[in-house]
Amino acid sequence: MKPAVFSYQSPRTLDEVFGELAEHGSDARVLAGGQSLIRLMNARTETPGVLVDINRIPGLDEVTVEDGVVRIGALVRQRTSEVSPVIREHTPVFSEAGAEVAHVSVRERGTVVGSIAFADPCAELPTALVALDGEIVARSTRGERVIPAEQMFLGPYRTALAEDEMAVEARLPALPTGRTGSAFLEITRRHGELPVCGVASILRLDDDGQITEARISVGAVGDRPQRARAAESALLGRTTDPEVWREAGELAAREIEPRPTVHGSSAYRRHLASVVTRRSLSRAAARALEGAHHV
Ligand SMILES: Cc1cc2nc3c(=O)[nH]c(=O)nc-3n(C[C@H](O)[C@H](O)[C@H](O)COP(=O)(O)OP(=O)(O)OC[C@H]3O[C@@H](n4cnc5c(N)ncnc54)[C@H](O)[C@@H]3O)c2cc1C
Question: Does residue 31's CB lie within 6 angstroms of at least one atom of ligand 1?
């Protein structure tokens, strides 16, 4: 099918974008990589009257690090993020998750911020963003606000962004150096597909090998990426041990409310959450013990 009639705007400045969004509200859509939006427009699931293409705006395609925070502009492609030495060094779990998104051809065009704004509950990058306690910077004619990752995702394809707001940047606090390990692991039906379960874990150990910090974000199982807080708390003070990962996996699976989908019942998804959490923690712990980040 072909898209319904729409008008195409190609502004050269952010202020022009904000003006278009303020004027057209719910009838306007930002066009970033187009990898999700154009498909939906062709299927007429999305029928915006105005498309605001941000691709000609300078300065949005940069990855920088400032005061221990990695900043990813709205036009940074998923592939650029995946191979960025800055992101690999400071937030390796984001690179690892990024390598699992679709195929290289999609990642060459699709943007990191577009994936976050699209809020597919299965998408890898939002799951990693939530584990990293990342933030989204939203701007409009009304000004700027910073949305913590956990408040960004409201449900499938629903975010905290208002109709007149554009997400201009994602921010990722750098992981501590030393005995910190992270891992992103997922189960997909076929290579390159969206996962049926994806888990990002971050573990920090003290010199005795005791866990001082644990973060677990479970994606694809519930209606948005969610932190498994009870499992995280239960890990504190424990040492790295397969039984500990198993217990944490079971706790995490109980915390997440699974959605039944064509790819599996709620019970199956809960089981997957338990297994993938266990494996992800085990890998993060091995990396923490080595005292180095790995991708
Ligand atoms: C074959 C195929 C396989 C895929 N597999 C996966 C996968 O395994 N995992 C995965 O995570 N994704 C997958 N995707 C989706 C892909 O990652 C998209 O690139 C991503 O979902 C959207 O990014 P985009 O830059 O292309 O955004 P667009 O398609 O341009 O936009 C998507 C939505 O986000 C909004 N938006 C975009 N940028 C902004 C912004 N800066 N501010 C406010 N709103 C904005 C748009 O208005 C639109 O509603 C796949 C896509 C394809 C075509």
Answer: yes
Ligand 1 in reach of 136 Cβ (< 6 A): no
The SS3 call for residue 173 is: strand
Q: Where in the chain is the domain with CATH 3.30.390.50?
A: 180-290
CATH 3.30.465.10 intervals, the chain? 63-173
> Can you give the pLDDT at residue 263?
78
Distance, CA of 58 to CA of 160 (rounded, Å): 26
Level-2 CATH architecture, domain 180-290:
2-Layer Sandwich (3.30)
How many angstroms does the Cα of residue 86 sit away from the middle of ligand 1?
Answer: 23
Choose the CATH number for 7-53 among 1.10.10.60, 3.90.470.20, 3.10.20.580, 3.30.43.10: 3.30.43.10
**Any bridge partners for residue 155, and if so which?**
158
What is the CATH topology of the domain spanning 63-173?
Answer: 3.30.465
Q: Give pairs for 144-148: CB < 8 Å, separation 24+.
A: 144/168, 146/171
Q: What is the CA(170)–ligand 1 centre distance, in A?
A: 14
Q: Probe ligand 1: pick from 79, 101, 104, 116, max atoms within 8 Å of CB?
A: 101
Mutate to test the pocket of ligand 1, among 37, 94, 144, 164 (most ligand atoms within 8 A of CB): 37
Q: Where are the alpha helices (DSSP H) in the chain?
A: 14-24, 37-42, 78-83, 85-90, 92-98, 104-109, 112-118, 124-131, 149-152, 229-235, 242-255, 266-290
Domain boundaries for CATH 3.30.43.10 within the chain: 7-53
Nearest-atom number in ligand 1 for the CA of 117 is: 34
Locate the ligand 1 atom nearest the alpha carbon of residue 36 and give its number.
29
Least confident of 92-106, 236-250, 251-265: 251-265
For 39-79, how does the pLDDT look when each residue is reduced to its tens digit (9 = 90+)? 999 999 999 999 999 999 999 999 999 999 999 999 999 99
